[in-house]
Amino acid sequence: MARFGQYKLNPETLLYETEEVPVRSRVVKWLLFLLLSGAMFLFYLWLFTSVLGWELPKTVLLRKQNAAWISRMEVMNRQLDRYESTLEGLELRDNEIYRNIFGMNEIGPEVRRSGLGGQHRDAVLEQQGASPLLRRTQLRLDVLTKRAYVQSRSFDDVAALSRRAGDMASCIPAIPPLMTDPTTYRLSSPFGYRSDPLNGVTKMHTGMDFACKPGNSVYSTGDGVVETVRFELFGYGNSVMIDHGFGYKTRYAHMKSIYVTEGMKIRRGECIGETGRSGRVSGPHLHYEVLYRNNFVNPINYMDLTMSEEEYRQMVEKTAAESSNRMVRPHQRIRL
Predict the structure, then answer these.
(1) In this structure, are 246 and 323 located in the same domain?
(2) Which of 92, 216, 233, 321 is disulfide-compatible with 275, CB 3.0–4.6 A?
(3) Cα 104 to chain center, whole Å?
């Protein structure tokens, strides 16, 4: 076995002499040194971490980085609070004002607040060890992203419809359905609860009744398309429903004659038939209804009964002249 030498002072000769040291002895010494050093290191590590409560430098660095990211996410959540508040204001104005003006249905919260990732995304983040704060922030981002997208599309729809604002003005039912000559009709029953004239039961009256002799011309109160024409023995009797678009519809009931057919385009002031007493009635009259987004509304809010007869007549004549290029059967001609 190879041996290593070391110089050692001889006290008798006062000379340095070479003394051979076995390799095994040197290896054992080094191993003992390393073991002792490792034991001391582990002892001090245990002392600092468990007894004194100190943290390792890498742990301190990771903790600082984690605190920085938590702080950033908290700032992000505060910003999301502001964005959400602003978006809620836009959604409220969209439903209550913009879409309401143009007769568009509201967008429900179940559509606006549905997330993109859903439970699957949250489960993936949880499996990856993401913190609850991170998962909650990601979910909020998903929901706000979807809500912003839905709101953007809604504004596109409103903008497209607003370009037809001129058409809307002519479509809204804004005139009485009869010539405004007070000597030819009488308002016999307003909109609201009343005692039924046939059985005395109190119930909702969904329109206005214009008591008049049979044969008075009935005019469309706005531009639209004839949705239904009904000939019934009971109920509304002979009736016409016109869809004006923008959420508005009107019904003209208990008529004697009807001059229009389903699918026919109608102009405001165009004659659609004559008053009568068909259906369930106690006397001759025109029952007139206005529906907005399939809800009955008070027709008196959509007409001016003080409109002069001359003004009404001029409007009817103008409509007849503008529609003169359409073929009109003799029995369909407007009678003034």
Answers:
(1) yes
(2) 216
(3) 11
Decide if 310 contacts 258 (C-beta within 8 A): no
Task: Say which residue the tokens 């002392």 belong to.
Answer: 47
Dihedral sign, Cα of residue 211, residue 228, residue 263, residue 299: positive
Residue 188 shares a structural domain with residue 315: yes
CA-based nearest residue to 315, from 127, 135, 132, 180 = 180
Question: Distance between CA atoms of 167 and 6, rounded to whole angstroms?
Answer: 112
Instruction: Give the span between the Cα atoms of 306 and 37, in whole angstroms.
Output: 108
How many CA atoms does the CB half-sphere of 286 hold within 13 Å?
A: 32
Clarify whether residues 42 and 91 are in a common domain: no
The total number of structural domains in the chain stands at 3
- Structural domain span for residue 24: 3-51
Residue 298 backbone phi and psi in degrees, to 5: -75, 115
**pTM given for the model:** 0.61
Model pLDDT for residues 238-291, shown as the tens digit of each residue:
999 999 988 899 999 999 999 999 999 999 999 999 999 999 998 999 999 999
Asked if 43 and 62 sit in the same domain, the reply is no
